[in-house]
Specification:
Rossmann fold; 220 residues
């Protein structure tokens, strides 16, 4: 366990179709029967968050970029307060499918909202909570959207144009740089992982990182 007297907050983030939910589930299977763990997603994870998720992802929903950002923050604030912090206090491993790097990528870089305002709103939502590690899956947006299309119709975020998704992809590449991380301590450590290839290969890349950082948790 980390030396902060609580459990582990592990985030899996990245663009559409990068395999975040798949890898969160695979990490959970490694922990099954060994330690308490929660697999959560954003937006969602609470009664309020699930209702917000339905609104945000419905292709029929129309809203401004600021309203979109505010709804993401509301879902996050509820999830952190009601679920994540209590679980960490119990010593659990909490794995999140998306967290605030997605807000920075989609709302700041993609939608063009002011960075300082979004960071301030996020600080209010997370109340000082910093991930112990973010696994940042890197995948070209064209490949990710092709993967997403195999799941069925696109949601409201996925139907945004190529230029929007190109900006988001570049944002995630930027987030993996040392210079960007140094200016954003609220994001905690970030490790970039190549998300191309077979799912099992991507899982192996992730597990090597996790085992090196927390051998007592992720090495059998």
């Amino acid at each position: 366990m980390p030396g902060n007297g609580r459990g582990i907050l592990l985030v899996v983030d990245g663009p559409e179709g990068a395999g975040k939910s798949t890898q969160v589930a695979r990490i959970g299977s490694l922990l099954e029967g060994r330690i308490e763990h929660l697999e959560l997603r954003e937006p969602g994870g609470t009664a309020l968050g699930d209702r917000i998720r339905a609104i945000l992802l419905d292709p029929a929903t129309r809203m401004t970029a600021r309203a979109e950002a505010a709804l993401f923050m509301a879902s996050r604030a509820e999830l952190v307060s009601e679920v994540v912090r209590p679980a960490l206090a119990r010593g659990a491993v909490v794995t999140l499918d998306r967290f605030f790097l997605s807000t920075y990528a989609y709302q700041i870089y993609g939608r063009g909202l002011p960075a300082d305002e979004v960071r301030a709103a996020n600080a209010l939502a997370v109340d000082g909570l910093v991930p112990d590690l973010t696994i940042l899956l890197q995948l070209p947006f064209e490949a990710g959207l092709r993967r997403a299309d195999t799941r069925g119709g696109r949601d409201r975020i996925e139907v945004a144009g190529d230029e929007f998704h190109r900006k988001v992809e570049q944002a995630f590449v930027t987030f993996a740089t040392t210079a960007w991380r140094a200016k954003h301590p609220e994001c905690g450590p970030i490790t970039s992982i190549d998300a191309t290839g077979e799912r099992a290969d991507v899982t192996d890349r992730i597990v090597r990182v996790l085992a090196a950082r927390w051998p007592s948790v992720f090495i059998s």
